[in-house]
Design the sequence.
């Protein structure tokens, strides 16, 4: 190659170099804040895109937003921003998640195009599960509920959705022994009780709540304690029945019987465990000490011991009353069988107290009857004839001490609980001289067989073979005296209580 050719080649290369443009500078930078947003379906968030023109000449940036799923939309989806030399601007984009989509995080790209260059800013939308259609809580629950004091509660139903939600049904199942009443948002009253089950329906505005007042009533007969009422709420998106969902809500209800809690707080024990028996024991004791037969109270017994024994005996009697109460209420008043061991109300408190007093009176009458029979058959009393006195001695040992009452002989029958003494004259048997009766009487007295002695003499009197009278040297009749003077317990003397 000659010199001329070489010069031509170098000239061509130089011309080519002059024709090649210089590398373009990047005049725009962009950043997204925040780089990630968390959105449930139906929610929106704001992303700020900051643009900076680092060039010395004005430019224009065209912005496009591209999402990897069509469930993500932006407003605006595209825009053009003019930028002066060295100028920065911040554009606001509203990012909305319209549906659940794949449930995965979605990529979001901000593409910035300018005459000199292009830039891509990456962001993402974090998937958050959908808010439930509806939520339900008991904001205030009923206190203690009884027959005379219903309880009040407030149920709050709401939604966190951005769209309206329709509550198609609000129903309830009352706790045992209760019934419910609610005021629906439309002003209608719904009740849930035996033979009636209503429902409430209403609309919830987006992100709104609805308070529903509820009243809790106690049935006539209840079993005190805490149990739960159940509410069922069915909601859906607008008129779309395919989106319907059901919530369950429980509300605790504490039942009591009117007046019972006050008694329990005073006594510190369950009413029906102690009160019926204690009332019965106290009434019987009062009647026996103050009316008849007037048994004296033990003077040496302490108050603590008396209360302890009364309580223990009261518990035992209360267990008996628990079995008697259904029978008494069924046979007498009110004529229907009631059992407070299962369910009861305030009326049962009255009834059990009334029947406790009634049972106490019946027990007292039985005691009086038994005591009267016992006294009539065994206890000597004034105006007893010799034959009656002998009959009362038939069940007792005839060996009785001989005493003196104001210097006159008598037989000491018994001492009363009040400290007095019952005395009687000796019995004298008169029979014919040739009768074998006196010898038989002496034999029976010697062998201490009072029952056979009475039987023997009673037959003899009926056949008019013997006559009974009081010993002429003794007191004239059976008497109650404050004190006596003992003569002795000599067997021969004692046998003279029945003489032939």
Sequence:
């Amino acid at each position: 190659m000659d010199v001329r050719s070489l010069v031509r080649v170098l000239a061509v290369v130089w011309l080519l170099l002059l024709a090649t443009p210089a590398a373009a500078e990047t005049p725009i930078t962009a950043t997204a804040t925040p780089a990630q947003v968390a959105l449930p379906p139906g929610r929106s968030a704001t992303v700020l895109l900051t643009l900076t023109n680092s060039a010395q000449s004005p430019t224009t940036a065209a912005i496009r937003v591209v999402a990897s799923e069509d469930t993500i939309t932006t407003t605006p989806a595209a825009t053009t921003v003019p930028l002066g030399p060295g100028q920065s601007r911040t554009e606001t984009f509203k990012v909305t998640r319209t549906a659940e989509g794949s449930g995965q995080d979605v990529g979001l790209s901000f593409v910035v195009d300018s005459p000199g260059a292009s830039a891509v800013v990456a962001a993402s939308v974090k998937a958050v599960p959908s808010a439930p259609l509806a939520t339900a809580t008991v904001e205030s629950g009923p206190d203690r509920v009884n027959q005379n004091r219903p309880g009040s509660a407030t149920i709050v139903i709401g939604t966190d959705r951005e769209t309206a939600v329709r509550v198609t049904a609000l129903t309830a199942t009352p706790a045992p022994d209760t019934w419910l009443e609610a005021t629906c948002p439309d002003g209608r009253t719904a009740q849930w009780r035996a033979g009636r089950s209503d429902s409430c329906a209403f609309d919830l505005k987006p992100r709104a709540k609805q308070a529903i007042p509820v009243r809790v009533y106690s049935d006539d007969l209840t079993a005190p304690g805490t149990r739960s009422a159940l509410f069922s709420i069915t909601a859906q998106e607008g008129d779309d029945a395919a989106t319907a969902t059901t919530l369950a809500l429980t509300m605790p209800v504490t039942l009591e019987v009117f007046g019972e809690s006050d008694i329990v707080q005073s006594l510190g024990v369950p009413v029906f465990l102690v009160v019926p028996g204690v009332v019965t024991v106290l009434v019987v004791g009062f009647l026996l000490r103050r009316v008849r037969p007037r048994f004296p109270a033990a003077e040496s017994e302490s108050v603590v011991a008396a209360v302890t024994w009364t309580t223990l005996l009261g518990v035992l009697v209360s267990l008996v009353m628990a079995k008697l109460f259904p029978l008494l209420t069924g046979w007498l008043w009110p004529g229907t069988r009631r059992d407070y061991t299962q369910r009861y109300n305030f009326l049962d408190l009255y009834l059990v107290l009334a029947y406790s007093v009634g049972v106490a009176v019946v027990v007292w009458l039985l005691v009086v009857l038994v005591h009267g029979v016992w006294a009539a058959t065994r206890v000597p009393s004034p105006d007893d004839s010799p034959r009656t006195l002998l009959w009362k001695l038939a069940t007792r040992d005839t060996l009785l001490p001989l005493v003196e009452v104001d210097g006159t002989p008598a037989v000491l029958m018994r001492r009363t609980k009040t400290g007095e003494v019952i005395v009687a004259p000796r019995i004298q048997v008169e029979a014919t001289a040739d009768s074998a009766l006196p010898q038989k009487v002496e034999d029976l007295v010697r062998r201490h067989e009072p029952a056979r002695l009475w039987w023997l003499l009673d037959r003899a009197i009926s056949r008019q073979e013997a006559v009974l009278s009081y010993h002429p040297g003794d007191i004239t009749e059976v008497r109650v005296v404050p004190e006596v003077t003992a003569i002795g317990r000599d067997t021969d003397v004692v046998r003279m209580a029945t003489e032939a």
About this structure: Confidence is low (pLDDT under 50) at residues 11-24, 265-269, 490-497. The two ends are 191 Å apart (CA to CA). Residues 340 and 500 are 67 Å apart (CA to CA).
